[in-house]
Design brief:
The complex is a heterodimer of chains A (200) and B (469). With 200 residues, chain A is an alpha/beta fold. Chain A has a single domain (8-175), classed as Alpha-Beta Barrel (Aconitase, domain 4), CATH 3.20.19.10. In chain A, 33% of the residues lie in helices and 16% in strands. Chain A has helices at residues 23-26, 46-49, 86-94, 106-114, 124-136, 164-171, 178-183, 185-193, 196-199, and strands at 8-15, 71-73, 98-101, 119-121, 141-145, 150-153, 156-159. Chain A has a seven-stranded mixed beta sheet. With 469 residues, chain B is of the alpha/beta class. Chain B folds into two domains: 5-264, Aconitase, domain 3, CATH 3.30.499; 286-465, Aconitase, domain 3. Helix content of chain B is 33%, strand content 17%. Chain B contains 16 helices and 19 strands. Chain B has helices at residues 5-13, 38-47, 77-93, 108-115, 146-155, 180-191, 206-210, 213-221, 237-243, 252-264, 312-325, 351-361, 379-387, 390-397, 447-456, 462-465, and strands at 14-17, 23-26, 29-32, 57-60, 96-98, 123-126, 140-143, 157-160, 164-171, 199-204, 230-233, 275-280, 287-289, 297-299, 340-343, 371-374, 400-401, 422-425, 441-444. In chain B, the strands form five sheets. Chain B has a five-stranded parallel beta sheet with strand order 5-4-3-6-7, with helices on both faces. Chain B has a five-stranded parallel beta sheet with strand order 17-16-15-18-19. Chain B is globular. Classes of the chains: A alpha/beta (200), B alpha/beta (469). Chains A and B meet through helix 4, helix 6, helix 7, helix 8 and helix 9 of A and strand 1, helix 2, helix 3, helix 5 and strand 8 of B.
Chain lengths: 200, 469
């Protein structure tokens, strides 16, 4: 399975401020009553975006100026809580192709990388500076360069880092591990055979 | 060289290093449920792959099952579709399914230990972040996403980076009325909800040595709420005693060899840790959350924080939390009226939880106007509790005694908060909307504190209500 080498993501960006934004908030549990991921995009941040009668609330993702954004900016510990892959699936299907935040919860980070949606870490000050640029000019294009580990917007560069294994997986087109894992089935069986509880 | 349990289990299960530097790690036991597995089976079909070791995967149904009307078809057509899909996927792949009619169904993190499937020195994965629970047995247990469920089904391995290890010691004896739940809420409060990112938490010290296996599970369960994907306790005689005689535990002829092997996985004296912190049990009081993440916690005698007095980085979240929770900054949390009490979840719905609460609840009544439900963690727990007369104590007190499942921990079944109801809950997450209503409010606490709230109709100190000294 040849996967796309993800070296750059370019698009308009939207800032959803806040720390510790959990995956329940990204996709409320009631929308996980499904046996496929299809259609999850419309439920991204549903309870933040809509009142109980279904009407739209004030939220960056409802703001017409930011419609069509493909890069999400947020705060620290983004994606904490539930391991639900439905969360990055919902963001991806909403149209996001990268997330920039101060830090990421581990399971969310892994799930997103496996979908080919890079999550890069920026300092709080840089995130706020970038958010200010985007706020003043929603049409501004933002580029995440995974190789150089930087974000560029309006001729300004910001540092944006990824852990080495995630960077390598994305830029080499091996972000979905299944092909690599399948290559080693004979070694998997050897390792398993050495474990008494496995053979039992 | 001295090694941690994590090092030893990792080395025994590492298949190889992948090109990006991650480990291809063998997963000894894979647990699945109805919410995060159907898409994984769909991906296998799309790729033309089969389940490699069906005998190493075990399934149950927990998130969507109703806890009152359990006859099928379920009134919720989507829930009904999910249980049927799991049944079909398990039958086709030859996976053991602890389905409702077996009498062994329950929350996946309660069923695994109860069946003796969860064992020391093993690796465990499940598409659920509370998989860290199984670490209480000295297993390395990961919550994973659905693509990784696919990976484990197809290859019995997953790609993962080895975490660092933080040793968390708790020393001394907990005061009466203070429980394992208070210990983990306190740890998360101290280290933060993101303090564990990149770490496995190794819990130890004399408090943990004295804990029952079920108390250890309560602590390990909430590791992920502190940001640690993995949490574990080194196995000891308490662990082996718990496992002995359980259906999937080693048979008597193999027992001694199994115990010897399990013991060998415990961290060596002098093992090097990336970080060590120590807390004193005597410093921990009954703890409740006041906000919208589990780290926003205070002792029952403390006041709700004033955001302006908090460090800069915590202020915005605190303001958001107080607005959502409709609490008064600077005021006592004690006395806050509750609408609903929920005793259940993979954190606190084991037999010891239900027994401890019943001991104090006997002869007391739920305050009129408070909705109180108790949801045993598994059919096994429910059945034992019924035989022991616990169910009757709860019913007499005015609790609804329900069937096993995740229930109001996350509101995927019909058990949900309504509007802005405030719930005193023995579960693990107080996120906005977590209990099924976007405006719903959750206050996390120990099971006995839940019972105290049920009796008084407000957030209370269980030690005062039940005369515990």
């Amino acid at each position: 399975m040849a996967l796309e080498k993800i070296t750059q993501v370019t698009g308009r960006a939207v800032h959803v401020p806040g720390d510790d934004i959990d995956t329940d908030r990204i996709i409320p549990a009631r929308f996980m009553k499904c046996v496929t991921f299809d259609g999850l995009g419309e439920y991204a941040f549903y309870d933040e975006r809509r009142a109980q009668d279904g009407s739209e609330k004030a939220h960056p993702l409802n703001d017409p100026r930011f419609l069509g954004s493909s890069i999400l900016l947020s705060g620290s510990n983004f994606g904490c809580g539930s391991s639900r892959e439905h969360a990055p699936q919902a963001l991806y299907r909403f149209g996001f192709r990268a997330v920039l935040a101060e830090s990421f919860a581990e399971i969310f980070f892994g799930n997103s990388t496996t979908l080919g949606m890079p999550c890069a870490v920026m300092s709080r000050a840089d995130l706020l500076a970038l958010a200010a640029v985007v706020e003043s000019d929603p049409a501004a294009l933002v580029t995440l360069d995974l190789v150089e580990e930087k974000v560029t917007c309006a001729d300004v560069d910001f540092r944006a880092t990824l852990p080495p294994h995630a960077k390598e997986a994305l830029v080499s087109g091996r972000w979905d591990a299944i092909a690599d894992l399948l290559e080693a089935i004979p070694q998997v069986r050897e390792t398993a055979a050495k474990l008494p509880y496995f053979a039992a | 060289m001295s090694r941690t349990l994590l090092d030893k289990v990792w080395d025994a299960h590492a298949v190889r290093q992948l090109p990006n530097g991650a480990t291809q790690l063998l997963i000894g036991t894979h647990l699945i449920h109805e919410v995060t597995s159907p898409q994984a089976f769909g991906m296998l079909r799309d790729l033309g792959l089969k389940v490699l070791y069906p005998e190493r995967t075990f399934a149950t149904v927990d998130h969507i099952v109703p806890t009152d009307e359990r006859e099928e078809p379920f009134s919720d057509a989507l829930a009904d579709e999910m249980i049927k899909a799991l049944r079909k996927n398990c039958a086709e792949a030859g996976i053991t399914f602890f389905d409702i009619p077996t009498g062994k169904q329950g929350i996946v993190h309660i069923v695994g230990p109860e069946q003796g499937i969860t064992q020391p020195g093993t690796t465990i994965a499940c598409g659920d972040s509370h998989t860290s629970t199984h670490g209480a047995f000295g297993a390395i247990a990961f919550g994973i996403g659905t693509s990784q469920v696919r990976d484990v089904l197809a290859t019995q391995t997953m790609a993962i980076h080895k975490p660092k290890v933080r040793r968390i010691n708790v020393e001394g004896r907990l005061a009466p009325g203070v429980y394992a739940k208070d210990v983990i809420l306190h740890i998360i409060r101290m280290l933060g909800v993101n303090g564990g990112i990149g770490y496995a938490y190794e819990y130890g010290g004399s408090t943990f040595d004295a804990f029952s296996q079920e108390e250890r599970m309560t602590v390990c369960n909430m590791s992920i709420e502190g940001g640690a994907r993995v949490g574990y306790v080194n196995p000891d005689a308490t662990t082996y005693e718990y496992l002995k005689g359980r259906p999937y535990a080693p048979k008597p002829a193999d027992w001694d060899a199994a115990v010897a092997r399990w013991s060998s996985f415990a961290s060596d004296p002098g093992a090097a840790y990336d970080d060590v912190v120590t807390y004193q049990a005597a410093d921990i009081a009954p703890t409740v959350t006041w906000g919208i993440n589990p780290g926003q916690a205070i002792f029952i005698g403390e006041n709700v924080p004033v955001p302006a007095e908090l460090p800069d980085k915590d202020r915005a979240t605190a303001e958001e939390a107080i607005a959502h929770m409709k609490l008064k900054p600077g005021a006592p949390i004690k006395g806050t009226p509750v609408d609903v009490v929920f005793l259940g979840s993979c954190t606190n719905a084991r037999l010891s939880d239900l027994t401890e609460v019943a001991r104090h609840l006997k002869g007391r009544k739920v305050k009129p106007g408070v909705k109180a439900i108790v949801v045993p963690g598994s059919q096994g727990v429910a059945s034992l509790a019924e035989k022991m007369g616990l169910a009757e104590i709860y019913r007499s007190a005015g609790f609804e005694w329900r069937g096993a499942g995740c229930s109001m921990c996350l509101g995927m079944n019909p058990d949900k908060l309504v509007g802005d109801q405030l719930c005193a809950s023995s579960s693990n997450r107080n996120f906005k909307g977590r209990q099924g209503s976007p405006l719903g409010r959750t206050v996390l606490m120990s099971p006995l504190m839940v019972a105290a709230a049920a009796v008084t109709g407000e957030i209370s100190d269980a030690r005062e209500i039940f005369g515990i000294q």
